[in-house]
């Protein structure tokens, strides 16, 4: 190839390569506000990113997040930007508005469905179908950044015993709030888990007293997380008071008149509050 043609070819390649490099830079992962060690965040998938900077999750002008208990361990989370999320979605407990995102866990069929409504854009499994692999979720949808911390299943109804990394703690970062759903947590978390989770302002916690963990073990997890707002769920058998009795004067307790609560960074309780929504009692 003659020198002038070689130079022209290199210039053309550079012209095509430059936009691709710029695009790659724009796909850098958002910085988690909740993780204790932000440098360890893995690659993220941007599903609908509308923020001004590629380094932070999109945040709308509003600041109120609404959480509604639908049943068992399913909560509806409504973001300021209009995104609807349903946790531990099994198809039985459904938000009034079709959800944009559903999360699932695999302990038993009250926590997932393999036949979700095809209109749901993002169906997030808390497990991997590849043996030995972990579910790895990092997703921005509108003004919500969603990630997971895998945990093991001690036993699994109808699925044959233990399942390593079979479940996930899902974390939703919305309007500056760090919101965690513990799913079907079967054992006390390790220091590594707590580091991966980071800060949780709000936590949805199973209080069945045995199908997941005993009330004393679960209370130790909650105390370690130091959340401002604790929302019991997944009550089977023992009354909620069996869980509440594990906490002392450092925690307030209130029973809600309805099934939802609206909260923001400004309105988080100053003292940790166990807030029992209608339908959980």
UniProtKB/TrEMBL annotation:
Q: Which residues form the signal peptide?
A: 1-24
Q: Which UniProt keywords apply?
A: Hydrolase, Signal
Pfam families on file: Lactamase_B_3
Chain ranges passing through the membrane: none
| Coiled coil (residue ranges) | none
InterPro entries, alphabetically? Answer: RibonucZ/Hydroxyglut_hydro
Asked if the Swiss-Prot or TrEMBL record annotates the protein with the keyword Lyase, the reply is no
Q: Which GO terms describe its molecular function?
A: hydrolase activity
Cross-referenced SUPFAM superfamilies: Metallo-hydrolase/oxidoreductase
**Is Signal one of the keywords UniProt gives this record?**
yes
Gene3D superfamilies named among the record's database cross-references: Ribonuclease Z/Hydroxyacylglutathione hydrolase-like (3.60.15.10)
Protein name, entry field: Zn-dependent hydrolase
């Amino acid at each position: 190839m003659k020198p002038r043609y070689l130079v022209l070819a290199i210039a053309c390649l550079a012209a095509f390569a430059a936009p691709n490099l710029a695009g790659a830079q724009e796909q850098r992962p958002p910085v988690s506000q909740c993780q204790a060690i932000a440098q360890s965040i893995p690659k993220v998938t941007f599903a609908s990113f509308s923020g001004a900077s590629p380094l932070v999750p999109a945040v709308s002008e509003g600041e109120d997040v609404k959480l509604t208990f639908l049943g068992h361990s399913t909560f509806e989370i409504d973001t300021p930007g209009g995104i609807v999320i349903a946790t531990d979605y099994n198809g039985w407990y459904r938000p009034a508005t079709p959800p944009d995102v559903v999360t699932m866990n695999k302990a038993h069929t009250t926590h997932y469905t393999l036949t979700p409504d095809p209109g749901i854009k993002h169906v997030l499994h808390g497990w991997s179908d590849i043996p030995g692999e972990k579910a790895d979720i990092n997703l921005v949808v509108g003004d919500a950044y969603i990630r997971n911390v895998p945990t093991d299943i001690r036993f699994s109804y109808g699925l044959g015993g233990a399942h390593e990394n079979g479940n996930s703690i899902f974390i939703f970062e919305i309007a500056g709030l760090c919101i965690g759903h513990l799913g079907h947590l079967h054992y006390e978390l390790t220091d590594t888990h707590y580091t991966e989770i980071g800060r949780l302002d709000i936590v949805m916690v199973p209080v069945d007293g045995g199908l997941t963990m005993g009330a004393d073990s679960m209370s130790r997890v909650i105390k370690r997380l130091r959340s401002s707002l604790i929302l019991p769920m997944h009550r089977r058998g023992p009354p909620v008071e069996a869980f509440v009795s594990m906490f002392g004067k450092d925690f307030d307790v209130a029973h809600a008149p309805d099934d939802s609560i609206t909260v923001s960074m400004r309105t988080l309780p100053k003292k940790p509050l166990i807030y029992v929504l209608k339908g959980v009692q």
